[in-house]
Amino acid sequence: LVHLPVIRPFPLDRLCAAVRHADRFVVCDVSHPFCSFASEVIAQLALEGLIGGRPVRRVTRPDSFTPSAAHLEARHYPDWREIVVAAGFPRPDVAREAEGIPRTWI
Prior knowledge:
The chain is an alpha+beta fold. The chain is 40% helix and 10% strand. The chain has a three-stranded mixed sheet, sandwiched between helices. Helix 4 (80-86) packs across helix 5. The relative contact order is 0.16.
């Protein structure tokens, strides 16, 4: 797990060191999937030659407008259940809950 509280300057060396020891990785971002920070992280790792044949998952909010109603907004952003499933650790209760919520996982 690598938490990036600051993205400028981009800590590429820290991220690369963590990814070298992982067999898969998930990038979580609360922005749209297209031209997002998650996309940039994956691109930087690919340029460093660190992706190889390992699975990469990107968990973001849907590529749509953000709702302004609180009860809809809560379902709009990714939560821990989606991250667990995207990481390849499906638990039956988590997988059932996440199935009904469309997300972009690439």
